[in-house]
Amino acid sequence: MYIISALYKFHNIPDPRKIHNEIREELKKNSIKGTVLVGSEGINGTISARCSKNLNESLAFIRSISGFKNIDTKNSFSQKSPFVRLKVKLKKEIVTIGDSSVNPNINRGDYVEPNEWNKIIEDEDVLLIDTRNKYECTIGTFRNALNPNTTKFREFPKWLESQNFSDSYKKNKKVAMFCTGGIRCEKASSLMRTKGFKNVYHLKGGILNYFESVPEKESLWNGECFVFDDRVSIKHDLSEGTYDMCHGCRMPIKDDDKKSRNFIKGVACPKCFDKTSDEQKSRYMSRQKQIDIAKKRNKQHIGPREEVIK
């Protein structure tokens, strides 16, 4: 059984390169896999280990960094390794919104604990926004949530501008936002405060924290939750979901999609079959062949799944 820990915290880091190097060495020492992003605005990552001692030591090290004692972490489990390697990256933004005026360390919305979330979003006067990408929203979201139909988080500011919300609306409307682990909605709440919204709330710890804290029978969530690792999705009990991934377009797919004549394992699915060239399909087929050979030899192949944290 593998333990997976999603973690993030916005906190100013004076020397991010130094912290980046220290985290990389510590995680390598403990045989940790996954992705960690380090920037001047904070730390964001998802890491995993088969040994709880190694994972706990790594988390303890991150918490020992000045300002990160209370870094938000959410654990889940998988029967298979969700990552094939460790990547620690130095970034300008630990989650990219593309607006330099946005700084959650200075200005952000109000946290809402999971046990208070249902009360907030059942209020008819609340505008509920899903800050995740559109393909994430399609497999699960909260009831009555608005989907901005973005393909990347950095498109969120453009979407917000396109809504032409009036000054009166910004002043009086309550806005509640959520995402997978809390980082995107926290940064989006900073953007909205910057743009003049007064009553902005976001789900602390995101959907993962909600799943962990709120009994399923009381849940207002519909569907599964997309995650950025090889599990693809998880259910409310944090177990692995029913979705797979098309390695051609990296979109979530179900068993019915695999029955289509336009599905080729590791190459294409009905969503992207007509959008890729024969040359691309040939390249993807060659890649899938190498993955299959590696599996037969009981080796891991650095396959098509790029670990990302959005």
Topology (SSEs and partners):
Blueprint: E1 2-10, H1 16-29, E2 33-39, E3 42-49, H2 52-64, E4 72-78, E5 86-90, E6 110-112, H3 114-121, E7 126-130, H4 134-137, E8 140-142, H5 156-162, H6 167-172, E9 174-178, H7 183-194, E10 199-203, H8 206-213, E11 221-223, E12 225-226, E13 233-234, E14 244-245, E15 252-253, H9 255-258, H10 278-296
Parallel strand pairs: 2-5, 6-10, 7-9, 9-10
Antiparallel strand pairs: 1-3, 1-4, 2-3, 8-11, 12-13, 14-15
Number of helices: 10
- The value of Rg in angstroms is 20 Å
Residue windows where pLDDT falls under 50 for at least 5 positions? 301-308
Secondary-structure arrangement, i.e. CATH architecture of the largest domain: 3-Layer(aba) Sandwich
Largest sheet: 5 strands, mixed
Percentage of residues in strands:
15-25%
CATH class of the largest domain, please? Alpha Beta
CATH topology-level name of the largest domain: Oxidized Rhodanese, domain 1
Which superfamily, in CATH terms, is the homologous superfamily of the largest domain? Rhodanese-like domain
Strand order of the largest sheet: 4-1-3-2-5
**Helix-strand makeup class:** alpha/beta
Q: Specify the helix fraction band.
A: 25-40%
- Overall mean confidence score, pLDDT: 91
First and last CA, distance: 25 Å
Structural description of this entry:
The protein is 31% helix and 22% strand. By secondary structure, it is α/β, with parallel strands linked by helices. The protein folds into 3 domains: 89 residues, Alpha-Beta Plaits, CATH 3.30.70.100; 114 residues, Rhodanese-like domain (Oxidized Rhodanese, domain 1), CATH 3.40.250.10; 56 residues, no CATH class. The strands form 5 sheets. It has a 5-stranded mixed beta sheet. The longest helix is centred in the last third of the chain and has 19 residues. The two termini are 25 Å apart.
